[in-house]
Amino acid sequence: MNDFLNRYLPNVMENKSEIWESTYETLYMVFMTSLFSAIFGIALGVILVATDKGGILANRWVYSILEKIVNFFRSVPFIILIAIVVPVTRLLTGTSIGMNAAIVPLVIGIVPFYARQIQNALLEVDPGIIEATQAMGSGPVEIIFRVYLKEGLTGIIRASSVTVINLIGLTTMAGAIGSGGLGSLAINKGYNRFQLDITFVATILILLLVFVCQFIGDYFTRKSTH
Q: Which of 97, 128, 157, 169 is least surrounded by CB atoms within 10 angstroms?
């Protein structure tokens, strides 16, 4: 087996520790970004639903401003967004390269996407349930937690799965500016140095990560519908 790997994947065998380190870096960026994005994305998605016309806290001005901010950041290509937020990245992390620095543009880039997904998921909640809860005297906070987040759980899980998969793709782009991870390994070590076996293995690892996230998302989606 080792002879086969040394013959067809020579650069991979010479850089095994670097590949494992890059895999850890990708997992770290995905986990930390997902954590922050879940907090800010769900909050922003709930506010968009609550302040929309006919919402429990309808406010045309708040909704209009937030919607424009979300649309703006969703429209900016991620590779350009990385450059735009460099001052913010340096302010928060003290540097513009590395794993921790990459988390800043990743969060800024993924939160608007996730917030829109959450908004769409919560809009699927039956309006009749919301009206019935209001008729029972429940306040906005109670409606958000007991109705929106509870009844929209399946949609939220589905949106989260799609967002994490999209996030994995963004981490590979972040690799182009020195964030580390499998994307950086595939570009800098594999593509630029013509070590195609490293590019191939890095791509396979990224695909495996996507498949695992998709499997977990589908599993919890099925569980939440029963």
A: 128
* CA count, 13 A, side-chain hemisphere, 105: 30
pLDDT one-digit tens code per residue, 148-196? 888 889 999 999 999 999 999 899 888 767 778 888 888 887 777 777 8
Dihedral sign of CA atoms 113, 115, 118, 123 in order: negative
**Size of the chain, expressed as the number of residues it contains:** 226
pLDDT in tens, 53-67: 888 888 999 999 999
Over the Cα atoms of the chain, what is R_g?
21
The C-alpha atoms of residue 188 and residue 27 are separated, in whole angstroms, by: 19
Six token digits for residue 85: 């937020």
